[in-house]
Design goal:
This protein is α/β, with parallel strands linked by helices. The chain has 2 domains: 7-206 and 271-383, Alkaline Phosphatase, subunit A (3-Layer(aba) Sandwich); 390-509, Arylsulfatase, C-terminal domain (2-Layer Sandwich), CATH 3.30.1120. It is built from 15 helices and 14 strands. It has helices at 7-16, 20-23, 61-69, 83-92, 96-99, 115-121, 167-184, 211-217, 239-249, 257-287, 321-324, 351-358, 373-376, 454-468, 483-488; strands spanning 33-39, 71-77, 125-130, 147-150, 194-200, 294-300, 325-331, 340-347, 388-392, 396-400, 404-408, 413-415, 433-437, 501-503. It has an 8-stranded mixed beta sheet with strand order 4-3-5-1-6-7-2-8, with helices on both faces. Strands 9-10-11-13 form a 4-stranded antiparallel beta sheet, with helices on one face. A two-stranded antiparallel ribbon has the order 12-14. A hairpin with a 3-residue loop joins strand 10 and strand 11. It starts with 6 loop residues before the first helix and ends in a 7-residue tail after the last strand. 52% of the residues are buried. Bound molecules: zinc ion. Zinc ion is lined by residues 40-41, 83, 301-302.
Length: 510
């Protein structure tokens, strides 16, 4: 079975699609199908191919199989550790400071053209299925998609939100079902290439895995507060996980090392459930012969702290690498030699030019990503990046050269996303300057700034150059939905904009 289009058919499709100019650099290019599989909140070091091999087995058999067939980018970092800004960077090839979607719920300005639009113009059939991205409230991701479906039906309270987080699995299952139905509609032979993106949610807190995976990954013999052997529809006992870890963060409870190990086991169990669902999507594509010339990406939008700093487990307040370091695995049978690992720095916005070039298209000139196609094809081992950048809105910034990471917090901001938004006069603490040797301290446990390492100066200058570029000078613009609306949806907790940060004294820089 040969699903890929022949060169002549590719040209005809390009002409029929009216995209001759966009495709003219590669009229005879046999375009691969492009499949993006993302798990919300999956940090890299909890993927089997990145070293997570617990006694219960890797939680990511699909990722591990793709890694054996493809390339593992060992150091991929997102530029913002929350869902919408990070995914907007993946889709546009630009930093949040450029595309302007710097906080969940903000819009994506029409001048930033996302990947599916460009692929659709080139003759791709395009579809996206994203469990938690309500397409009517947050349509930033649907442009260019012939089919765009989320997993949410009805109003969130009716879905169980706030009563039992079982709803996350319901959304994921619905999303996969919709994706499988779409795949069934695809022809087997001589079809246009497809762009398919599937995004699942149940890795996200409050760590409520399917009961069978909870049983499988739970710490043997553990009988503490995070031991939840069963979850029944309508019950809220799993919500206690969030309540407990929030109390931990705020210093109102203390737990044992075994408790922490069990929370991470719950997380792994959620990863396994999502990976298995994505494997069903991959199997359906394979059964159709659609993986024979397909570039498959396995990644995430951000990770989770999982207690790395200040006993905080989630991601909305963090600019540390537990939140920023995501898996990036790319397979492409016949094009990419399997089993390779690339140590160079990458960012998720690099996928944008990479995938366009793989499709024979030229990235637009305002693209900020660096194409990884030469690395994928084995032409070089150099990912082309000297630094990676991240922000917490327009207040806190970080840059890393792969050996050292510097955090610049010129206004002394202390973010107050949940659980801090419910507490008095406390936020997620940052110093005004922090410096880590991430080569030997990847979890950023030892701040070396006080030793005034010269590396901090060079990274500070790099950050200032980055922020000084005209496209990065934008303050956080208004334009998002009302805080009350997001709070009602559970996205911001109860934090109002004016309450989202505290500040500490940074002396002259404040
Ligand atoms: Zn997310």
């Amino acid at each position: 079975m040969q699903p890929s289009i022949r060169p002549a058919a590719a040209l005809l499709l390009a002409l029929a699609g009216g995209c001759l100019a966009a495709c003219s650099d590669s009229e005879d290019h046999v375009r691969p199908s492009i499949i993006i599989l993302t798990l919300d909140t999956l940090r890299a070091d909890h993927v089997g191919a990145y070293g997570n091999q617990p006694a219960a087995g890797s939680p990511t058999p699909l990722a591990d199989r793709l890694a054996a067939q493809g390339v593992v980018f060992e150091r991929c970092f997102v530029p913002r550790g929350v869902t919408h800004p990070s995914l907007a960077s993946l889709l546009t090839g630009k930093y949040p400071a450029t595309h302007g979607l710097r906080r969940n719920g903000f819009p994506l300005d029409a001048r930033h053209v996302p990947l599916p639009v460009l692929l659709a113009r080139a003759g791709y059939h395009t579809a996206g299925f994203a469990a938690n991205l309500d397409r009517s409230r947050w349509p930033f991701w649907v442009r260019g998609l012939e089919v765009a479906e989320d997993g949410i039906e009805g109003r969130l309270p009716e879905e169980g939100y706030g009563q039992s987080h079982v709803f996350q699995r319901v959304w994921d299952e619905r999303t996969v079902t919709k994706a499988l139905r779409w795949i069934e509609t695809l022809p087997r032979e001589d079809a246009a290439p497809v762009f398919l993106w599937v995004h699942l949610y149940d890795v996200h807190a409050p760590y409520t895995p399917e009961p069978r995976w909870l049983e499988h990954y739970s710490v043997p013999g553990y009988d503490g507060p995070f031991r939840r052997p069963t979850v029944r529809e309508g019950e809220s006992e799993q919500d206690q996980v969030t309540t407990l870890i929030d109390a931990w963060t705020l210093g109102r409870a203390s737990f044992t090392p075994a408790d922490l190990e069990q929370v991470k086991a719950l997380y792994d169990a959620g990863v396994r459930g999502c990976d298995e669902k994505l494997a069903r999507v991959a199997a359906a594509l394979e059964e159709k012969g659609l993986l024979e010339n397909a570039l498959v990406v396995y990644s995430s939008d951000h990770g989770d702290e999982l207690g790395d700093h200040h006993d905080y487990f989630q991601h909305g307040n963090s600019i540390y690498d537990g939140t920023l370091h995501v898996p990036l695995i790319v397979s492409w049978p016949g094009k990419v030699t399997g089993g390779r690992r690339v140590a160079g720095l990458t960012q998720n916005l690099d996928l944008f030019p990479t995938l366009l070039q793989a499709a024979g298209l030229t990235p637009p000139p305002d693209c900020e990503g660096v194409s990884l196609l030469p690395v994928l094809l084995g032409e070089t081992e150099d990912s082309g990046r000297s630094h990676v950048f991240a922000e917490w809105e327009d207040l806190i910034f970080s840059a890393s050269d792969g050996e050292w990471k510097y955090i610049h917090n010129p206004k002394g901001a202390q973010p107050r996303c949940p659980p801090y938004s419910f507490a008095e006069n406390v936020g997620f603490p940052y110093e005004c300057h922090e410096l880590y040797n991430v080569a030997v301290d990847p979890r950023e446990q030892h701040d070396l700034f006080a030793k005034s390492h010269p590396r901090a100066i060079s990274l500070l200058l790099w950050v200032e150059r980055f922020l000084g570029q005209p496209e990065h000078r934008n303050p956080l613009a208004p334009g998002g939905p009302a805080d009350e609306e997001l709070a009602a949806l559970g996205y911001l907790g109860s934090a109002r904009s004016e309450d989202r940060v505290l500040t500490i004294d940074c002396g002259e820089e404040r």
